[in-house]
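>> received
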Amino acid sequence: SISEIVSAEPERKPVWAEDAVSVWSLTLAGEINSSLSYYQNQQNGASIRRVFLSGRGARIKGLANKLQDSLELPVMVLLPFEGISIPAKHEKIKSTAQDFAVSAALALRGLEV
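>> returned
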């Protein structure tokens, strides 16, 4: 299941997980390429230097590397709590930090209503 892949516990990783990630990463890379091409067409050929991976997919082991190979661009996993001190009692949140990228960005920027 996808939850087994996302949790990526090596001792319980299903045999087919790596193949599933490979196939899915190719599909995802195609979608990202389409979006990047659209952006470049709208921005007069703007240069794209890197791609940031966030959300739950960023926790899938090997996905960033597979996307980087397919896109031929650096793919970096976004770490939204980098540089933010987390109290010891909330340290566990760091393992799911990518899930909070939008929330952290809005909190840092300030949300105007």
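>> The CA atoms of residues 70 and 106 lie 31 Å apart.
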